[in-house]
Amino acid sequence: MQQDKYIQFRNRLTKVFAHRRKKARQQKVSCYRLYDLDLPEFPFAIDLYDNHLHVAEYKRNHTLTGEEHAQWLANSCQCMIEILEVPQEHIHLKQREVITDRQQQYTRLQQQDHRLVVQENDLKFLVNLDDYLDTGLFLDHRPTRERVRTTCARLEVLNLFAYTGSFSVYAANGKARRVTTVDLSNTYIDWARENFALNNLPEAPHRFIAADVNAWLLTESARQYDLIVCDPPTFSNSKKMQGSFDIQRDHPALINQCLRLLTPNGVLLFSTNNRRFRLFDQHLNTRKIRDITRQTTGFDFEGKLDRLCYELHVAD
User: Fold this and answer.
1) Which helix (H) or strand (E) holds 158?
2) Closest of 250, 315, 272, 300 to residue 99, by C-alpha
3) 99 exposed, middle or buried (CB, 10 Å; 0-12, 13-18, 19+)?
4) Which residues fall within 8 angstroms of residue 134, CB to CB, at 6 or more apart?
5) pLDDT digit string (tens) for 29-58?
6) Which of 18, 37, 69, 182 has the most neighbouring CB atoms within 10 Å?
7) Which of 234, 285, 211, 216 is nearest to 255 (CA)?
8) d(CA 50, CA 39)
């Protein structure tokens, strides 16, 4: 690769770092996206976690030999070290493809068990930058989490496909009456409990449930939730669940089950990171639907709209 390509990469990193670091300080966040496939020759997603970098190299077709690729990667990381002001040992590098199955999220890549405590707004979260494809904290959900915190006081909150429970932490900190956290993985339910403890939030009266969300919803019979957060995978066929789940095919049934459990004035926040997703609103048991994607997109994801978000209410 010609040297001027590295100059372009360095210039791009310099520009976005100066802009986003300023925004992050204003908003009191220490974890944010710096770079997201901005230049075709450098197919990275680079996230800053305090003074650590989580760097995902996306697979693509190229003509580099193994030795040439290793040299390109070393040169790219050197640019990050110099521009983003992090030491070599704080770069956590992964090669990945776009996740299409939530079960991939649960699969360990390594067994280092080295976790960091990071801060978002005035809350703390455990992240693992090495052992899984994802880190434990979805950065693009940051504005939606704050939206939940500012609207959930004295409400009954349900967090579905909860991952490590960051929405639940925000809700409990926002004085929700009770938060029910549901995810398929025992590992992530335990992680959610640790995030509660890290923020000095008591477990009771909140609930932590390891279960197949779709099957669990069928066991709930009463309209008892004032706010439901639902962030399902694009696709999943885990052995722990009944059948498979496809977001485009199955979202009407999932959303209608959530609507069934809402109180008359309740709100469902439904999101997906499937860029090709199309909401089948004609199959939903409500017409009170609002696309809030732009309102819930952070400064570090502007122009990308990686995650769609909808607000739904019970039909009159």
Assistant:
1) strand 156-160
2) 272
3) middle
4) 99, 105, 163
5) 999 999 999 999 999 999 999 999 999 999
6) 182
7) 285
8) 24
Q: Are 15 and 92 in contact (CB under 8 A)?
A: no
> Which residues are bridge partners to 242 per DSSP?
none
- Residue 230 pLDDT greater than 50, yes or no: yes
Q: Which residue carries 């809402």 as its tokens? A: 262
Q: For 174-186, give one letter per residue: b (16+ CB within 10 A) or e.
A: bebebbbbbbbbe
> CA-to-CA distance for 284 and 282, rounded, in angstroms?
6
Q: Where are the alpha helices (DSSP H) in the chain?
A: 3-27, 66-84, 102-106, 142-149, 166-173, 186-198, 213-219, 247-260
pLDDT at 47: 98
Alpha-carbon Rg for the chain, nearest whole angstrom, is 20
Once rounded to an integer, what is the mean pLDDT over residues 181-200? 97
Is the pLDDT at 286 greater than 80? The verdict is: yes
Which stretch of DSSP H or E encloses residue 33?
strand 31-36
Mean pLDDT taken over the chain: 92
- The pLDDT tens digits for 154-190 are 999 999 999 999 999 999 999 999 999 999 999 999 9
Encoded amino acid at 45, one letter = A
**The token pair that represents 111 in the structure block:** 């067994």
* Distance (Å, whole) CA 165 – CA 92: 23
Beta-ladder partners of 159: 181, 229
Helix (H, G, I), strand (E, B) or coil at 17: helix
Question: Hey, which residues does 92 pair with through a beta bridge?
Answer: 54
Q: Which of 314 and 305 is assigned the larger pLDDT?
A: 314
As given in the structure block, the two tokens for residue 242 are 């009944």
Percentage of residues in the chain having pLDDT higher than 90: 81
